[in-house]
Amino acid sequence: MKGTRIFFFALLALTIFCVKANAQAFLIDEEFNAAPAAPAGWTFTSISSTYTSSANYGRSSPSVKFDGSGEIALSPAWSGSADEVTFFTRGNGSTPTTDNFLIEGWNGSSWTTVGRAYPQTTAKVFVFPLASNVTRLRFTYTKVVANCAFDDVKVRAAGFCSGQLSITGIMADACGSDEGYDEFVSCANGGPAMNLSDLEITFSDVGSNGGCTYCGTTGNPCDNFFVNNAATNTYIASLNTMAGCGTLFMAPPGNVIPAGGNFIVFAGAPPTYTYNFSNLCSTGLTYYAVFANNTSDNNGRFGNNGACTGQACPRDAMLRNNATGCVDTNYYNRGAIPNNNGEMAYFGSAGHSATYINTGCTTFTVLPIELSVFSGEVQGGSVVLSWTTESENNNSFFTVERAGADGNFTAIGTVNGSGTTSQPVEYEFTDVTPLPGQNYYRLRWTDFNGASIVSAIISVTAETDRVYANAWYDGTGIHYRSANWSSEMHISIFDSSGRLVYETVSGNGDNVIPLAVPSHDMFLVVFGDEENRITQKVAW
CA–CA separation, 256 vs 196, rounded Å? Predict the structure, then answer.
C-alpha cells in the first residue's frame, strides 16, 4: 500500500509540474536592460541614471539608480492574480540608515501599502506577498543618505510555486585562502526536478568582476551563470576521494537536480580548497555540486568578523527556481561571525535567524531531510497533519508549529524522528484544537546536535464558531490560547500522578501560567465551562 501511495504522489507531482512548466511563472519579469529609459509599460519619475559597476546589478547590467527622494518606478498593469513580488537592491554612496522603498499595490480603486524595503550595504533581494486583487505596483524611494541600485522585478503568478526550495547554510568564512572561490551555499530542492537553466542564486557581494546574481548555464539571461567542465569534474572527484565513501558528490545528471535533491552551489569553478564531507557518508544520499562560472575573482561573496550597526550587518542570499517561481531568502549577521576559517551559518529557527557553527574545516554538517509530502485536512473538528520523508539523517524529532492570522508561530506538539534512514517514513499529528478560521502549519525538524530547519508552510481552514483552547510549554511557563468560550473558563492542571497542581479561571485570549514542567515529564491541562471540556497533554 505504501508503495502505491508513493507512486500516486509522484505521478500527481509530475502531472502538476508538467502543467505548470507550460504556463507562465511570472506576470512581470523585468531586468531594466534599457535603463535609464523606462521599459515598455513602465513609467519612471525623476529617474535618469544607472549602475553598471561590479555588484550593483542583479541578473544583467545595468540596474536602475535611485538617488533622490520621490523618485518612482510604476509597473505596467497585469492580468491574472499574483501572490508575490521580488526585486534586487543595493545601497550605495553611504551606509543606508532609514533610506527605503515604499511598495504600493493598485487594487482597482486605490493604492494600498504592500511594504517597505530598507536597502543594505550589500545586495539583497526583497520578497513581499501580494494580495490577489493587486494588478500594478508603485515603488517610491525615500533617500536619507544613500543611493540605491534597483533591478530584477518579478511578480509571480498566484499558486504557481510547487514545493519548497531552501537555503540550508552559508559558508561565510571559507577554508583556504581564496574566499571568492571557496565559499558555498548549501541548498535543498523540496520541489519537482529542477534544470540548472532555471536555477538562480544571488550572493550578497562580489569583488571586481560581475554582478551578484548567477542563473542558467549560458550568458543569457544572466551575465553570470553555472558551469560544468573538466576542472569542476576533477574537483568533484577530489571531494569523493576526501570523503572516502564512493560517489557522495556528482554533477547534476543532464544538468537536472532531482526532486528532493540536496545540492551545494560553490562560488568558484572550481574552489581551491577540498572540503571534507565524510560525515555525510552515513546518509546514503547523493549531493549535487553546482559551480558559479567564477575563475578570476577571489574576493569573498559574504562577510564576517566586523563591527557593524544597522544595515551594514546583514548578509543575504537568495535562491529561486524560475520554472516554478519558488524562492527562498536567508540572512545572517556578519558581526556575529569571528574571523576563523570554516565559520558557517545554518538556518531554520524562527524568522530565518542563523545558528553559527565551525567544524574546523574537517567536516561539514547539514540537515538533509527530504520531505516529499506535507498536508492537512479537517476531520471532525480537528486538523490531521500528514507528512512523508524520503530520507533522514540524524533526525531527532519534529516540532509542529502553528500560526493564526497574526503569523506568529508557536509549537503545539512534537513527533519523534527516525534517526538516519534512506527509506520513506510516514508521520501524522492531530491538532485537536485548531484556531477558528485559517490555520498555518509548518514543521521544524531538529537533529541530535540541536540544529534545526523549518519546512514550507501549509494552511488549513477550520470551523470558526466552536470553542477553542490550546496549551503548550516553552521552558518558561505553560502558555495557552482560547476563543469562543461563552462563560468563564476554568483551567485545572494535573501532574503525571494525577495530583492537582494549579487551578485558575480565565477568559478568552492569550495567557501564560508561570509553572515549570519537569524534564521528561507530562502535565494534563483541562479547560472547561458549563457546556464544554477540552483536555490536553503538555510535555517537556
Answer: 6
Q: What is the DSSP letter of 70?
A: T
pLDDT in tens, 217-253: 887 788 999 999 999 999 999 999 999 999 999 999 9
Angle value at C-alpha 115, between 323 and 34, nearest 5 degrees: 55
Pair 195, 252: CB distance under 8 Å: no
CB atoms < 10 A from the CB of 410, how many? Answer: 15
Instruction: Name which of 88, 34, 35, 60 is nearest 224 in CA terms.
Output: 60
Cell numbers for 248? 557522495
How far from 119 is each of 99, 137, 148, 335, CA to CA, in Å?
7, 18, 7, 18
Chain-centroid distance, C-alpha 337:
21
On whether the CB atoms of residues 466 and 435 are closer than 8 A, the answer is: no
Residue with cell 457546556: 531
Q: Are strands 213-215 and 199-202 parallel, antiparallel or unpaired?
A: antiparallel
Pick the most confident of 15-29, 80-94, 198-212, 463-477. Answer: 80-94
Q: Which residues pair with 187 in a beta bridge?
A: 167, 263
Burial class of residue 418 (count of CB atoms within 10 Å of its CB; 0-12, 13-18, 19+): middle
Beta strands in 158-300 (DSSP E): 165-173, 184-189, 194-195, 199-202, 213-215, 226-227, 249-250, 256-257, 262-266, 287-292
Q: Which three cell numbers stand for residue 217?
A: 548555464
Model confidence at 71, pLDDT cuts 50, 70, 90, reads very high
Nearest to 445 by CA among 337, 374, 369, 515: 369
Confidence of residue 191 (pLDDT cuts 50, 70, 90): confident
**Cα 325–124–267 angle (5° rounding)?**
80
Residue 144 carries which side chain, given as an amino acid letter?
Answer: V
- 334 phi, psi to nearest 5 deg: -65, -25
Sign of CA dihedral 144, 146, 147, 149: negative
Amino acid in the structure at residue 71? E
pTM recorded for the entire structure: 0.67
Supply the mean pLDDT for the chain.
84
